């Protein structure tokens, strides 16, 4: 038989030729992969958590800044102090509602909460425009709360709810349970307050430097910022608000808005000559064509005015007698008086420049201290403040502290006439500040202090006591005759400008006989130069809360600010028509 054919078989590898990892190598590889996975997870976690806190901080910052801008927007219509009265209450309520209702809002709204925030921000200027027209109806007590309740509060509620949504994914597992629950809310509120306190300093110091740094400009900038954060098709609904801001809102300080405002005011016999915003508030110069006078406005108050219907001879004709009466500082009879051309005067607080203009016209070397550069600029451009004077655009407290030794016993006359009426810079009425004026005044010098206050409230009497504690001999006058008890009871106040003439000695203050040259060919000065309505001690308040105002006790005046400022607001609404205040 032939041999059987053998079928070839594939060669088989020897077990020694198969490469398999050892147990140790496999274990090392698993550890490496696990470490890499852990590293990636931790890095992503850190990035996500940082993103959560950054987004939350941005939202909180925008809220805090807007709360300050809202106050600035209300101050021209209600005044700075009435605007603050309910501000914190509105904020507290809005933050509480937003934080506690974030889940309900998320379920109720058809889109993400953050998409609605730019819409609310866009409509706030428009809402304020219409609400300001109702300020006379709302009043200074509840008007600011109503306005912010319908504008600022919805923005804060939505932004707070969005912040709460964002912080829900914050990893606080390393903290005990009750602390982890409370930390997001407490941390968010603390951050809000810190940013709010810091941002107001920067807003005030930079306001008016450009159009975006004005009240309405800041509201527009904030609305745009919200829009960048939350772009959506809902933004189309903001078009009416944008059109209103561009063509109908007079509060935006553009040439078009000013022209539009004047078109309305001219029909009522008024016009805006110029306006801008500065460190002390919204400033404007207005002409009354019907009655023939011009005034300078700061927020919801007037810094002075003069008649335009009377021919200006040497100085302007002031519409308020108080500024003319301050010039009577020259008439106080003192020993060794120097002639005017050898005298020096220090004028703290400029206004429209009525008193310093008169002092300069008499040939007195006059130094003006004014904190607001726009006030100084407007006084020169629109009220004829002479150029031959020394101007210091600075804080009066700092300036006097610096100069009280260097210029001790320099000035024959000091005029202290700063913005008051419920919003006085308290530091300028402390005993310490008055002591610095005492040091600057010559031994036979005279100081005249103007304070606008309510005789029925303690601040006026506190200021009088403080002045008398520094200057031993004073006489006090009010601008207008004292009203009857029935009038005081009916109005609920006795508000007036009060002028204190004081000397450094204990000699009685007396006025020399007025000469024709003292009038500067001015009709107003012939009528009002010499003060007439003296205030006696019986008209001032007495009691345990009537003491002396010191630098560390400013709360004595501050606690009465709201009541005093609301009374001042009511007075201003009678001085100028409501539409002037509302159409700032």
UniProtKB/TrEMBL annotation:
Region (Disordered): 1-26
Record carries keyword Ribosomal protein: no
Entry keyword annotation includes Repeat: no
Listed GO biological process terms: polyamine biosynthetic process
Listed transmembrane segments: 57-79, 85-105, 114-132
Gene3D superfamilies recorded: Vaccinia Virus protein VP39
Comp. bias intervals (Polar residues): 9-22
Top-level taxon in the UniProt lineage: Eukaryota
Pfam families cross-referenced by the UniProt entry: Spermine_synth (PF01564)
Alphabetized InterPro entries for the sequence: SAM-dependent_MTases_sf (IPR029063)
Keywords (A to Z) from UniProt: Membrane, Polyamine biosynthesis, Transmembrane, Transmembrane helix
NCBIfam families linked: MFS_SpdSyn (NF037959)
UniProt name for this protein: PABS domain-containing protein
Organism the protein comes from: Monosporascus ibericus
Lineage: Eukaryota, Fungi, Dikarya, Ascomycota, Pezizomycotina
